[in-house]
Design brief:
Number of helices: 11
Number of domains: 1
Strand order of the largest sheet: 1-2-5-6-7-8-9-10
Largest sheet: 8 strands, parallel, barrel
Strand content: 15-25%
Number of strands: 10
Distance between the termini: 22 Å
Mean pLDDT: 88
CATH class: Alpha Beta
Length: 293
C-alpha cells in the first residue's frame, strides 16, 4: 500500500476525462500510480445565480464511480477546494461523508490534510482515519517546508491532534507553480528541505509535486506550441543531489492542468475555437537511472 519512490502521483480534479483515463490504464501502470483526487465545488449556474447542484447531489456519485474506475487501489482524497462551511444534509463534513461512502465500497483512501486546515476539517480527517486505518497525507507548501525546524514542530503537533504516527503519514511537498528559473536555486532550496527535515526522513512516503502547465489555454499562442514540462526536469535535478542515505521522493504533477481551480460555467456558449492537445508533447523524458517511462 505505501507510495514508493517509483510511483507516480497525479493531482486530478476527478473530471470525466481524468477518471476515464485512469480506468483505461494498463494494470501494470495502475499499480504504479496513486492519484491525489481534489474534490471541486459544484459548478455554478450563472443563469439562476446559484450552484448547479447541492453538495449532496454533487458528491453522491463519487464512491461508486471511484470503485468502478479505480477499484481498491490506493488513492489520496483532498477536500481542501470545498468551501469550509460546506456540509452535507444533516451536518456531516464532506470529507467524512466521502470517506465513509468510499470505505463502504472497499476503496483504499488516504485523507489529505494541510497544516492550515480548519478545526472541522481536521476533525473529519481524524474520524475518517480512525475508521479506515489508512493514515493521513499531509500536503504542504514550499514556504512551510523551508523553515525545517518550525515545519517539523507543526507536523508533530498536527499528527498528535489527529492521532497518527509519523510512519503512517505521507508527505506531499507541492510546489504548485513556482518560478522555475534559476533552476539551481530552487533545486538547492528543495534539496535542503528534503535533507534537513526529520518529518521528511521519517514519513511513510514523500512526494515532490508541481506544474508548469499553463493556467489557461489562452496562454498558448498559435496552432502548435511546445510547452516543456519543467517539473519533470526539475525532479531529476533534485534527485541528482540526493545521496543513498537521503529520502528519495516520488514524482507528482497536475497532469494536463494548471494549478488552481476555476468553476465551470453552466451556460450554453458558442465555441469560438478549438484547442487540440497532443499528449505526447507533454510526456516527460525519463530521468537517467529511472525505469519510469
Amino acid at each position: 500500500m505505501p507510495i514508493t519512490q517509483t510511483d507516480y502521483v497525479p493531482i486530478l480534479k476527478w473530471r470525466q476525462g481524468e477518471y476515464q483515463a485512469l480506468w483505461r490504464l494498463a494494470d501494470a501502470i495502475k499499480d504504479r500510480t496513486v492519484p491525489l483526487i481534489e474534490i471541486t465545488p459544484p459548478d455554478f449556474d450563472f443563469e439562476s445565480w446559484r450552484p448547479a447542484k447541492t453538495i449532496d447531489e454533487h458528491l453522491a456519485p463519487f464512491a461508486t464511480r471511484l470503485q468502478k474506475k479505480w477499484g481498491s487501489r490506493l488513492a489520496l482524497l483532498d477536500c481542501g477546494l470545498l468551501d469550509t462551511t460546506a456540509r452535507m444534509h444533516g451536518g456531516k463534513h464532506p470529507m467524512l461523508y466521502l470517506c465513509e461512502q468510499a470505505f463502504a465500497q472497499e476503496a483504499t483512501i488516504v485523507p489529505v490534510v494541510r497544516i492550515t486546515s480548519d478545526p472541522a476539517y481536521r476533525a473529519a480527517v481524524a474520524t475518517a482515519q480512525a475508521m479506515m486505518q489508512t493514515g493521513i497525507a499531509l500536503r504542504c507548501s514550499l514556504a512551510e517546508a523551508m523553515d525545517v525546524s518550525t515545519f517539523d514542530v507543526e507536523v508533530a503537533a498536527l499528527r498528535q491532534q489527529l492521532g497518527v504516527a509519523l510512519e503512517d503519514c505521507d508527505l506531499i511537498l507541492d510546489l504548485e507553480e513556482p518560478s522555475w528559473d534559476p533552476q539551481h536555486v530552487l533545486v538547492a532550496i528543495v534539496s535542503a528541505a528534503l535533507k534537513g527535515s526529520s518529518a521528511m526522513a521519517g514519513a511513510r512516503s514523500v512526494t515532490l509535486a508541481g506544474t508548469s502547465f499553463p493556467a489557461s489555454m489562452a496562454e498558448v499562442t498559435g496552432p502548435l506550441q511546445y510547452w516543456p514540462r519543467r517539473e519533470w526536469a526539475f525532479f531529476g535535478a533534485v534527485r541528482a543531489t540526493l545521496g543513498s542515505g537521503d529520502r528519495i521522493p516520488s514524482f507528482g504533477d497536475y497532469a494536463i492542468a494548471g494549478h488552481g481551480f476555476a468553476p465551470l460555467r453552466c451556460r450554453p456558449r458558442r465555441s469560438e475555437g478549438r484547442a487540440t492537445r497532443a499528449t505526447h508533447a507533454f510526456r516527460p523524458e525519463p530521468v537517467q537511472g529511472d525505469r519510469r517511462t
